[in-house]
Structure formats: C-alpha cells, structure tokens
Here is the input.
Amino acid sequence: MMQKYLPSVIDSSVLEGNTEGNVEVIVADNASTDNSLSMLSELFPNVRTIVMEKNWGFAEGYNKALRMLDLEQEKNNAPLHDYYLLLNSDVRLKKGWLTPLVEYMENHSDTAACQPKLLSDVEPTKFEYAGACGGFIDRYGYPFCRGRIFNTLEEDEGQYDRPMNVLWATGACLMIRRKDYWEANGLDGRFFAHNEEIDLCWRLNLKGRKVACVPQSTAYHYGGGTLPQGNPRKTYLNFRNNLTMLYKNLPDDELHIVMKRRRWLDWLAAFQMLILGRSIGNFRAIFKARHDFMKWRHRFEQDRISIQKNSITDSPIGKLPLSILWQYYAKRRKRYSEIATD
Here is the structure.
C-alpha cells in the first residue's frame, strides 16, 4: 500500500505561492513485519525513516515517532518543525494540496489543527468514511461528518466547500501545530487505535483551541487497510475508546445521563448486529468493550480531573445537542445538510 501511495506524497508535498517553509516527508515504521523497510531503502532512499522496536498502535506510535523526530532535530541543532501532518499510508495526494492548509493555519492563530476535504480513492466523487469534510459528535458521543453519516457517503458536489470549524479532524490526514500537540499531551496511547484523534481534538476544543476543515485542499483515502469495516477487533476498539473518550471529556452535569443512555444504546447495537447477521463476533465485541471500559475507567480518572479543571467551555464547536441515531433512523435524515439542530 505504501509503495503505491508514497510517490504522490513525495511529489505533491511542496508549498506554493506566497507560503514559505520547508517540508519534509518522514516515514514512521511501527515495527512492520513485511518488506516495508527494504522497499523504502531500495525505492525511496532519500526518505527519512523512523523505526520503532514494537507495534505501538496508531496513537502511541505517532507519539513516539514525533518525540524521536524532535530529539533528532535538537541533536542536529536543527529547528523544530512548526507543524506535524499525520498521514495514513493509503492516502493519495495531488499537487497543491498542502498550501491551503498551511495558509489557513498561518492566518488563524487560534486554530490548533485542520484537515483537507477527504474523498474516497475508490470512488473519487464521494466523500470518504474516515473524515469526509470535518467531524462532529452528537450528545451521546456518536461521530459523524459533513458528507458522511454512519455508512451513508454523499457525493461531493461542492456543497461543503466552505471552511468550517468542527469538533474533530480526521487522523488519516491531520495537520496540527507542534506546540498544541504536546501541550495537549498528544494522542492518548492507551487507545491503541480508533477515536484517538477525536479525543485529542475534543481536548483541544475544551482548551479554547479551534479545529477546522479546509476543503480548498483535497486528499484521497483508500481506507480500511488495517482493520476493515465489520471486523470485531475494530468494533471493540471503537466502542471501548468512545466510552473512554466520553468519560474523559464530558462535563459533570452530562456524564451520568449520557453513560446511562449509552448502556442501553450499546446493548441495542449489539443485538442489532446479531439479528442482521453481522456475526456473533461483533455482538461479543460490544459487550467486551463495555466490560473492559468499566475495568480500566479508573486509569483515566486523573485525566478527567485535569481536563475538566482546565476546560473553558462545556459546549465546544461541533458537539451538537441532538441524537444522530434519531435523526438518521427515525427522521431519515442521512445528509449533514438535512440535520435539524433545533
């Protein structure tokens, strides 16, 4: 996958127009077991590689790679990078994609992170599941996007081409200021994978920092390369991490009622998967996720105390006071533009 997509990253990662700065493409190898390192050495000898000794997962893998990068820069008396851009290995890019992101960040000092418009590399006229045109959550913590609600993917007709502040930006292609990344303590490595970028962006919003989608930049994501939709492991991580994210970030006056209702909603989701024939594995994954969340919740108590103490808002941009389940299934509103927020 990387051999297919890396050339587009190298060829297109330049700044244009009046935007100044140096761009460096770096590959972080999370203890791969295939021929990735030998392929990189043979085909891309000029690309710097950071190699880790074990698979730390998406979240802690990035934390460790970025720490190693900063240490290398300091050791070589080189300036630290102003921005990180976290990029999945299955993202295709075109010339000119980077400049709008940098220009937006340079012109909006209150913005900590942003993403491009994310389209499908399989169906390029459609938004891609992982982040579409910027992410939101509903009152119960269910994520959705401009251009994607649950499994409904809209055609990109320019309907969301206005830059917009959102709650979260996709981890598939996430630009973030280095300073903001570390002041927020980076991605939560305990998540391993899934919901970690939503959690980070939520924490940034609570601190008064903004997150944006900049549709003047476009990226194409293949998606599902690590864990495809419907995989029980993916189901488990999504449910466990989503509950943990809620526990960390919800204000006190919302936490109890949201968690109480999520218990019933999660049970309903588990039985729906069983009835619809999506395998008993996913059914079991949801119950295991809830069990493991309750078992490890105490490990996040100090995080919660710190987040709530330093929060400057209980209603960050992009956290909408509605149920996306009710909007989608009861009212049959399957496009972001159709959602009622009253």
About this structure: The first strand starts at residue 26 and ends at 29. The first helix runs from residue 2 to 12. The chain has eleven helices and twelve strands.
